[in-house]
């Protein structure tokens, strides 16, 4: 997976997916919960890929589907890269709906087929992007009728991200997350968020960017 082995990496590899499972449980209780990790959507059943070792989204979906009261799960993935591992792992699970909105010409170069894949052109800007996200969210909700949503709010759509190819501002990312979470709240569907991808040599700026989804959640859910 192109990451050097270390005890810290092993610990993180097991902790992060457990965190996604826990976040989903908290979302069922509170309507919203945000994980400060997760979204390792390139990991497959028997191999790691794209810095992803275990696929927390597939693991959490499978755990949820074994619970009473959960019949269908939607994974709504807006990381700039396709959630290929998630699509492949859940291909034979009809009650887990995988939706990915990603940049067509970006990694992984061999895409897997999810339940709803939306490929975006390079350089897409805020206005057009927000429209696609809104339209795709409505479509995937109508098709999947989920009891819970796992939302991968990757920030590598950001215009200066070295591994993204889109042209989205930080304000655009906030509006994206705000609009997704508002719609799910309006429909009373619990949502667990994970941070997904995001790359920047400036770690403080990157952490703040990953914090956008938490800020949006706080704004949407503290209105009560
Ligand atoms: Zn990514």
UniProtKB/TrEMBL annotation:
Source organism per UniProt: Marinobacter manganoxydans MnI7-9
Gene3D superfamilies assigned: Histone deacetylase domain
SUPFAM superfamilies associated with the record: Arginase/deacetylase (SSF52768)
InterPro entries in UniProt: HDAC_classIV, HDACs, His_deacetylse_dom, His_deacetylse_dom_sf, Ureohydrolase_dom_sf
Domain Histone deacetylase: 4-205
Keywords: Hydrolase
GO biological process: epigenetic regulation of gene expression
Family per record: Belongs to the histone deacetylase family.
CDD domains attached to this UniProt entry: HDAC_classIV
Superkingdom assignment: Bacteria
GO MF annotations, alphabetized: histone deacetylase activity; hydrolase activity
Name by which UniProt lists this protein: Deacetylase family protein
Cleaved signal peptide residues: none
Family annotation (Pfam families): Hist_deacetyl
């Amino acid at each position: 997976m192109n990451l050097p082995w270390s005890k810290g990496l092993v610990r993180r590899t097991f902790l992060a997916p457990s965190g996604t499972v826990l976040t989903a449980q908290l979302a069922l209780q509170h309507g919203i919960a945000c994980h400060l990790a997760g979204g390792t959507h390139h990991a497959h059943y028997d191999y790691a890929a794209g810095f992803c070792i275990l696929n927390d989204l597939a693991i959490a979906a499978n755990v949820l589907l074994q619970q009473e009261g959960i019949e269908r799960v939607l994974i709504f993935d807006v990381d700039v890269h396709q959630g290929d591992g998630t699509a492949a792992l859940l291909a034979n699970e009809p009650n887990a709906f995988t939706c990915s909105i990603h940049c067509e010409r970006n990694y992984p170069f061999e895409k897997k087929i999810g339940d709803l894949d939306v490929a975006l052109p390079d350089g897409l800007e805020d206005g057009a992007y927000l429209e696609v996200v809104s339209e795709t969210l409505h479509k995937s909700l109508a098709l999947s009728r989920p009891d819970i949503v796992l939302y991968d709010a990757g920030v590598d759509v950001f215009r200066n991200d070295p591994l993204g190819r889109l042209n989205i501002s930080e304000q655009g990312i906030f509006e994206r997350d705000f609009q997704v979470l508002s719609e799910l709240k309006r429909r009373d569907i619990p949502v667990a968020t994970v941070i997904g991808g995001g790359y920047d040599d400036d770690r403080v700026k990157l952490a703040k960017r990953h914090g956008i989804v938490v800020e949006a959640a706080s704004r949407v859910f503290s209105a009560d």
